[in-house]
Design goal:
By secondary structure, the chain is of the alpha+beta class. About 35% of the residues lie in helices and about 20% in strands. It folds into four domains: about 105-345, D-amino Acid Aminotransferase, Chain A, domain 1; about 355-460, Beta Barrel (OB fold (Dihydrolipoamide Acetyltransferase, E2P)), CATH 2.40.50; about 470-635, DNA polymerase, domain 1 (Orthogonal Bundle), CATH 1.10.150; about 655-725, BRCT domain (Rossmann fold). It has 27 helices and 24 strands. α25 (about 670-680) links the parallel β21 (about 655-660) and β22. α19 (about 565-570) packs across α20 (about 575-585). It is globular. The termini are far apart.
Length: about 725
């Protein structure tokens, strides 16, 4: 990295991120609980789903707020608070692995002032003087997936993801396909390990990443195959490393940077700078831009240069990690509950761009909900060009106060999702902004011209027409989604193209109109960016016979998905997966449900009059009934398997109602609910006097509080394990 002169890290006149989520909390305890829920949900989306739902900066602001509350009210600190834990997630797809020592998170500095505060505290703790300055090692913060590599006798023994910091996932078979991970520590590295490495275990740590160019090629392949593209290189790396088939991982271009060790004592090095040199001697891939510095001015300069040159790199970085160079100094400073005191991560601000808002268009979803979408002059943000961003609803438009013609600031939430931050209101821009009219929702649907309504107490505006073509496309996409019929390959773009080409209009078309030959000939709307012996650059990408055959096999298999998935897939308003399961279990068949009255449906526990009315309304529309009959004729199962038969499992939980809340470690809430239902239990989404037990995971909120208030027994995950193993309620 070039040693440029220091340059400003933050431009002038940028709009401030207006995001603030105060919720309804009115006390420090309530706000702390609220923040823990927000942070846990965001961490799950980031680590488990590889689908970040907020910016790092926003996440960090919530964490800082929570720390401040707990500092002022120490009685609110608990072992399950996010401030006491390392962010992460362990799936059940791989064997769990316990790390030799905990893999900590790193505290963040959101600006230079916070970085300087940390430097001052650290210098003071180390007894630094002008004659004896502290040395720091500055490293680029790689935006990838954490990995721990364990070597015994100099041989690779195991590779594991970071997981929750204490326990990770065993991904050894997949890691062996990554070419820059050495199977054996090189002789020069072994020479500095106690006893030449014999009898020694060494766990080194770093980051798995995917180069930007490889990411582009992978998404091109996904487009050609009709698969959903990855959102960014970090998600691609995480998804590639966690493949069940190591051959798939091997086909992806994954690489590593190693920069840490669980225990440095067996290694004859005394500083981070020397340790990085030792890693290179061992054969590990080490980032070449690490620097040893001896002043805050040099730290600042390194951060400025990293920010200025981040786009020159073929991998993503989101900040700079500053470490006390001396291992003795690190040991002296130690750790907090979740992070080392001897290290800080200076986080880059979200990459923001100014542009002009040209229009606010309305997009119609599968349930008829109208969503305003900002359209602006194209700008390049975080490596890609964006020209649209959702504004979610009319309340959000009003809160941000954006008006057509405004100069606005945009960024990518989590470096993934385009987002409008707000208008620029400097100088004359404010007067021009105030002179522009407020945007309002249309009174008729832009797709079909039908009236638009807003139900009392709801944020959303909705098109009332069942024949709305925009709704039809969204319903077709929803039908193939994982929670519904789970038809792999039916992504947004492919379904949209089939609708455009007149191949699909309703979900029954998948079964009685679509075939492999027709699907193979669908133009994906993409073109090849490179030339090979099979195609030229610029040629259109078609679905092709191989992918078409796989998708049609998936469609055929979906016929056996069962009534609950069909009901959810139909997109009936207010009928989510849980309600669909309740209806399926109670009525057993589509015919029985279609003949039921609103009163009959409302009698089902967990379903009220509002849901019952929408179900009856759905079956009152002839077009909907016609689609269902075509599904039946095509062989799609419209009954619940085993309905009316004696269940295979003992129904030891029959008559009991469970409510699941908080984050469970071993199960998703939907999985835990399904397991409980197998034993005869009812699973509800709300706590009442009729609730038998509440199962509370980490960061449980209002449902736990209500259970305690009503005297409903509360169980932890250990008790849930025992219930699922025995099929019986807890004793006592």
């Amino acid at each position: 990295m070039a040693d440029d002169e220091r340059m400003p890290l933050f431009g002038t006149g940028q709009a401030r991120d207006h995001a603030s989520d105060q919720g309804g909390a009115t006390t420090p305890a309530a706000r702390a609980a609220e923040l823990n829920r927000i942070l846990s949900r965001a961490a799950y989306a980031y680590y488990a789903l590889d689908a970040p739902e907020m910016t790092d900066a926003q996440f960090d602001r919530y964490l800082v707020e929570l720390k401040a509350i707990e500092a002022e009210h120490p009685e609110l600190v608990s072992s399950d608070s996010y401030t006491q834990n390392v962010g992460g997630y362990v799936s059940d797809q791989f064997e769990p692995v316990r790390h030799a020592r905990r893999m900590y998170s790193i505290d963040d500095a959101m600006d230079l002032d916070e970085l300087d505060e940390w430097l001052d505290r650290t210098d003071e703790a180390l007894g630094v003087t002008p004659d004896h300055p502290a040395a720091y090692t500055c490293e680029l913060k790689i935006d990838g997936l954490g990995i721990a590599l364990t070597y015994r006798d100099g041989q690779l023994l195991r590779a594991a993801t970071r997981g929750d910091g204490t326990t990770g996932e065993n991904v050894t078979a997949n890691a062996l396909t990554i070419r820059d991970i050495p199977r054996t520590i090189a002789r020069a590295g072994l020479a500095k390990i106690q006893d030449g490495g014999l009898g020694q275990r060494v766990e080194v740590r770093g980051e798995v990443y995917m180069p930007k160019a490889s990411f582009v090629r992978l998404n091109e392949q996904n487009d050609a195959a009709g698969r959903q593209p990855f959102a960014n290189p970090r998600n691609a790396a995480a998804g590639s490393l966690r493949q069940k088939d190591a051959a798939v991982t091997g086909a992806r271009d994954l690489r590593t940077f190693i920069y840490a060790v669980a225990d440095s004592r067996p290694i004859a090095v005394g500083t981070q700078h020397d340790f990085l040199a030792w890693l290179k001697d061992c054969g590990f891939s080490v980032n070449p831009h690490a620097r040893r510095v001896e002043s805050s001015t040099e730290v600042h300069k390194y951060c400025a240069n990293a920010l200025a040159h981040r786009e020159d790199l073929d991998y993503d970085i989101d900040g700079v990690v500053v470490k006390v160079d001396s291992f003795a100094g690190q040991g002296e400073l130690g750790f907090t509950a979740r992070a080392p005191r001897w290290s800080i991560a200076f986080k880059f601000p979200p990459e923001e761009r100014r542009t002009v808002l040209r229009a606010i268009r309305v997009q119609v979803g599968r349930t008829g909900v109208l969503t305003p979408v900002a359209e602006f002059d194209p700008v390049t943000v975080a490596g890609s060009t964006i020209a649209r961003a959702t504004l979610h609803n009319i309340d959000e438009v009003r809160r941000k106060d954006v008006r057509v013609g405004d100069t606005i600031v945009v960024h990518k939430a989590g470096d993934v999702i385009p987002e409008v931050v707000g208008p620029i209101l400097e100088g004359a821009m404010r007067g021009a902004h105030e002179a522009r009219p407020l945007w309002d929702m249309p009174t008729t649907c832009p797709a079909c011209g039908s009236p638009v309504v807003r139900d009392e107490g709801e944020v959303a505006f909705r098109c009332v027409s069942i024949d709305c073509p925009a709704q039809a496309t969204e319903r077709l996409i929803h039908w193939g989604s994982r929670g519904a019929m789970d038809i792999d390959g039916l992504g947004v773009e492919l379904v949209g193209r089939m609708v455009e080409q007149g191949l699909l209009s309703d979900v029954a078309d998948y079964y009685d109109r679509l075939d492999a030959d027709t699907l193979a000939a669908v133009d994906t709307g993409r073109s090849y960016e490179t030339s090979t012996r099979d195609h030229l650059k610029g040629d259109p990408i078609f679905v092709g016979r191989t992918i078409a055959a796989k998708v049609m096999d998936q469609i055929e298999a979906s016929k056996r998905a069962g009534l609950a998935r069909v009901l959810f897939g139909l997109g009936i308003r207010h009928v989510g997966s849980n309600v669909a399961a309740l209806l399926s279990s109670h009525f057993g068949s589509m015919r029985a449900l279609a003949m039921a009255s609103a009163e009959d449906i409302a009698c089902v526990e967990g379903i009220g009059p509002k849901i019952a009315a929408t179900v009856v309304e759905f079956f009152s529309i002839p077009e909907n009934v016609a689609v269902i009959e075509r599904l039946r004729a095509a062989g799609v199962s419209l009954e619940q398997e085993g309905f009316g038969e004696e269940p295979e499992r003992p129904q030891g939980l029959a008559g009991l109602t469970f409510v699941l809340t908080g984050t469970l470690e071993k199960y998703s809430r939907s999985e835990a609910g399904a397991r409980l239902r197998e034993h005869g239990a009812k699973v509800s989404g709300s706590v009442s006097q009729r609730t038998s037990y509440v199962v509370a995971g980490a960061n449980a909120g209002s449902k736990l509080a209500k259970a305690q208030r009503l005297g409903v027994p509360v169980l932890d995950e250990g008790a849930l394990d025992a219930i699922l193993a025995s099929g019986m309620p807890p004793e006592g």
